[in-house]
Structure formats: structure tokens, C-alpha cells
Design goal:
single chain, 2 strands, Ferritin-like_SF, two-stranded antiparallel sheet, Ferritin, DUF2383 domain-containing protein, Ferritin-like
Length: 151
């Protein structure tokens, strides 16, 4: 296991969200189905919001916290997006939501693990807040998926 700073973890999370956003945007360009396009647009906006949140955290978190070392070995973004191997423009709304929830679950698990292993209260609070943010966004995604049947 290697070590990374809090900044490295935030960078990794931001890159993951940006990669997922780009994937959804690419799929939007290829799909012909209106409901799928609407869900892809919503998911791209979801990932964009979270990527911007990571950027804001960089700017508003103390250098002391950002430079803290934690036991974390960032995996490849492709591994985190493992469910996207089957991504194609003809995915159903349910399949898209399943992929989005896998990404959220991956990050929630990561942030909870980081919070449980944090040595300072400030970094513990940061990772707990990130886990809560991901959970809130996950709930929004699920609600949007449930309402997709009304579109």
C-alpha cells in the first residue's frame, strides 16, 4: 500500500468525476433515444457538479489538511469505472443509473475508509463531508431515475 496526500485523493476524485462526465457526454452524442439522452445529460451534470466540488475543496481547504499523508493507493480510473466496459449508446436508463451508482458507491466507500483512518479531526471531517455529499448526490440520481418513467 502506498501513501498519498489529501490533495492527491481530491485530485483523483476530481479526475474520476471528469472522466465519468466525459463518458456520459460521448454517449449522448451517439444515442438516438430521447429518454436515454435526458438521463445522460442529468448524469453528466451530476458528475460536473461533483468535479467542481472537488475543485472548490482544493481552494477552500487548508494547506495543512491538503498536505496530510494517508494510506491510499489510487487505482486506475478505468478500474473505478469498471462497469463502463459495457457502455454503448443503446444502454437503458436503468443500466446507466446502475453505472452511476457504482461510481458513487466506490467513492462513498473510499471516503468512509479515509475518514476512519484519518489522524486529524480536520481531515476526518473533510472525508465524512465528502461521503455525505456523494450520498446526497446518489439519492438525487436515484430519484431522477425513478422519475425517468414519467418522461
Amino acid at each position: 500500500m502506498s501513501y498519498s496526500t489529501v490533495k492527491d485523493v481530491l485530485d483523483y476524485s476530481q479526475q474520476l468525476h471528469e472522466h465519468a462526465r466525459n463518458l456520459y457526454q460521448q454517449l449522448r452524442d451517439q444515442t438516438q433515444r430521447e429518454r436515454v439522452d435526458m438521463m445522460l445529460q442529468l448524469l453528466a451534470e451530476h458528475e460536473n457538479t461533483l468535479a467542481h466540488s472537488m475543485q472548490n475543496l482544493h481552494e477552500h481547504t487548508s494547506q495543512k489538511v491538503l498536505s496530510e499523508w494517508h494510506q491510499f493507493e489510487p487505482g486506475s480510473i478505468a478500474k473505478a469505472l469498471d462497469g463502463c466496459k459495457q457502455c454503448h449508446p443503446d444502454l437503458s436508463v436503468d443500466e446507466l443509473v446502475e453505472i452511476a451508482l457504482k461510481i458513487d458507491d466506490y467513492l462513498i466507500h473510499l471516503y468512509r475508509q479515509m475518514a476512519s483512518e484519518a489522524t486529524s479531526g480536520e481531515s476526518r471531517q473533510l472525508f465524512e463531508n465528502l461521503a455525505q455529499l456523494e450520498e446526497t448526490e446518489k439519492i438525487r440520481t436515484v430519484r431522477a431515475a425513478l422519475s425517468a418513467n414519467d418522461w
